[in-house]
User: Fold this.
Amino acid sequence: MIDHSALATSEIIFMREAIKQAHLAEERDEVPVGAVIVQGHKIIARAHNQVETLSDPTAHAEMIAITQATDHLSNKWLTECALYVTLEPCAMCAGALVLARIPRIYFGAQDPKAGACGSVFNIAHHPQLNHRIKIKKGPLAAQCSQLLRRFFEKKRYLINQRKVDRKIRF
Ligand SMILES: [Zn+2]
Assistant:
């Protein structure tokens, strides 16, 4: 049976907003990852991955969203907020989220290669750090994973096409 509780509904609503941001990244030929930060029931930051656009390896969706949210609140801490992100945060982002004292992260797809909320590292819940973040994985996971899979399939196809073109030309 589908769970229609208010909490589950808001999780889906906010994750859909994060997915919209991931689509914006995809349109700009960026790895499609999107994030929103919510305070109460209000979205106070929306961001997508901009690593290629800004030529900046730190321009992950979460990092940009943290800066937007702290600017919005004029506060370095996000103690009453939650982050919704389409992909499990990496070590850098999880570290920044610990520093921002965010209490809760919802992520869609797991990242078995670089995830730092339980997959490869567990920075979000490390016993030696002074803040621990509650993690909920899985809202709209299939949609979030599919976006990434499609993006990388297209990339691989284009790379192979280029190889074929080169062979034909020379
Ligand atoms: Zn990251």
DSSP finds five helices and five strands in the chain. The chain has a mean pLDDT of 93. The pocket of zinc ion is lined by residues 60, 62, 89-90, 92-93 (CB under 6 Å). Strands lie at 34-39, 42-48, 81-87, 104-109, 134-137.
